[in-house]
Amino acid sequence: MTAQSAVVGKTTYLNGIDTKAAADTIAAIKNDKSLAKFQFRATNEWVSGGENRSTIRDFFGAGMEDTSRAAAFTFTNGEPPVLLGNNEGANPVEFLLHALAGCVTTTFVLHAMARGIAIQELSTELKGNIDLQGLLGLDDSVPPGYERIDIVMHVKADCSDEELEDLMSYAQQHSPVCNTVCRPVPVTVTRAMR
Amino acid sequence: MTAQSAVVGKTTYLNGIDTKAAADTIAAIKNDKSLAKFQFRATNEWVSGGENRSTIRDFFGAGMEDTSRAAAFTFTNGEPPVLLGNNEGANPVEFLLHALAGCVTTTFVLHAMARGIAIQELSTELKGNIDLQGLLGLDDSVPPGYERIDIVMHVKADCSDEELEDLMSYAQQHSPVCNTVCRPVPVTVTRAMR
User: Fold this and answer.
1) Does B97 fall in a domain?
2) Is A187 within the bounds of a domain?
3) Cβ pair B68:A59 closer than 8 A
4) In A61-160, which ranges are continuous DSSP H helix?
5) Pair A67, A143 in one domain
6) pTM (2 d.p.)
7) Is A2 in Cβ contact with B48 (below 8 Å)?
8) pLDDT in tens, chain B (194 residues)
9) Contacts B119 to A, Cβ<8 Å
10) Number of domains comprising chain B
11) Are both A110 and A175 inside the same structural domain?
């Protein structure tokens, strides 16, 4: 097991996060709120049927275009045979669960660090229920999206059960992906100019 | 370029989708609505800091547990240096854009097939704006999630501009991920029993 709390050189890490860099980031944003404004981006190309591929690399944040990534990330969506595909990749609603799991986890880890709580173990199990009559347009009363998503969190940390419960609730409320799912977020779809 | 409309043996494909298999699926669901109920799942394990990894394989749908995947898919969330990580992977809010891009695309392709429209090219560009004061808990009036997400779609298809615009609007309204983002979906976070 990796030590999640350590001092390397003059840098102190808690939960794998450089505590001074984190404090400096918070101070910089408090001093100039515009540094907190980020724009994330993806481009996606259809391949065939339920297969398509996203490329993710650049983003804007902390007042500038990021140039830290030597190469782009690529991810392939696919569908299982029961949804007329060949398992070319996980499907989009499954990738949403991955995004949600990761975001709640990172938000939890970040705020644990801010509270001085060391985490030993953290894992989550997600289940999302969906009725595909919505996607298929068979029943207008059925929402096309998830009906609900349930997350079970396994966690061991250096704090009381009460502190852990409070941190879980805080992470749920402050996770960007969880908030994007829980709250209505406007999405526009516009045709490209030729 | 792959031919997206083809007859292979006795199977007819449009946009890479087996049209008879699609019609059979719709007929089966109309006959038994419970076949449309799916449950997707992910498990995620924290690694360190902003790095964590999801495993996705099994799901329930069409009345049974799926067994079509020989191996699990795994995906790694990470964070860029400006967000205190080492680009271990794309970050969760970027994975959300990938999920959204793929879902709108697949929904578009599926309903184009249902309408007999052949697609030649389809790609999307997504931009999502977010203010990280929400995540950091610095200002309670700032939502932690995306403020808005804008999708630009490039598409060439065998139909009129009017049919294309109608299909775009239909795909936006019926995409499960788009609907999950646009509409408030309940998420629960519960601590695992020991």
Assistant:
1) yes
2) yes
3) no
4) 92-114, 133-136
5) no
6) 0.97
7) yes
8) 444 677 777 789 999 999 999 999 999 999 999 999 999 999 999 999 999 999 999 999 999 999 999 999 999 999 999 999 999 999 999 999 999 999 999 999 999 999 999 999 999 999 999 999 999 999 999 999 999 999 999 999 999 999 999 999 999 999 999 999 999 999 999 999 76
9) 46
10) 2
11) yes
Are A151 and A102 in the same domain? yes
Nearest to B174 among A80, A135, A154 (CB): A135
Report the half-sphere exposure of B48 (CA within 13 A, side-chain side): 15
Q: Which residue of B has its CA nearest to A73?
A: B90
Cross-chain Cβ contact B82/A89 below 8 Å: no
Are B51 and B98 in the same domain?
no
Q: Determine, yes or no, domain membership for A126.
A: yes
CATH number at residue A119: 3.30.300.20
- DSSP E strands, chain A: 5-8, 11-14, 17-18, 37-48, 51-56, 59-61, 64-65, 73-77, 119-131, 146-157, 187-191
**Whether A186 and A97 share a structural domain:** yes
Residue of B nearest to A14 (CA): B49
CA distance A10 to chain B (A): 16
DSSP state of B141: T
CB A134 within 8 A of CB B176: yes
Strands (E), chain B: 5-8, 11-14, 17-18, 37-48, 51-56, 59-61, 64-65, 73-77, 119-131, 146-157, 187-191
> Quick one: three-class SS letters along A106-123?
HHHHHHHHHCCCCEEEEE
Chain A with chain B: Cβ pairs closer than 8 A = 469
Nearest by CB: B145 against A122, A143, A176: A176
Over the stretch A86-137, which tens digit does the pLDDT of each residue have? 999 999 999 999 999 999 999 999 999 999 999 999 999 999 999 999 999 9
Structure ipTM: 0.96
Domain-embedded: residue B31: no
Distance, in Å, from the CA atom of A182 to the CA atom of A173, rounded to the nearest integer, reads 9
Query: Residue B168 belongs to what domain range?
Result: 91-194
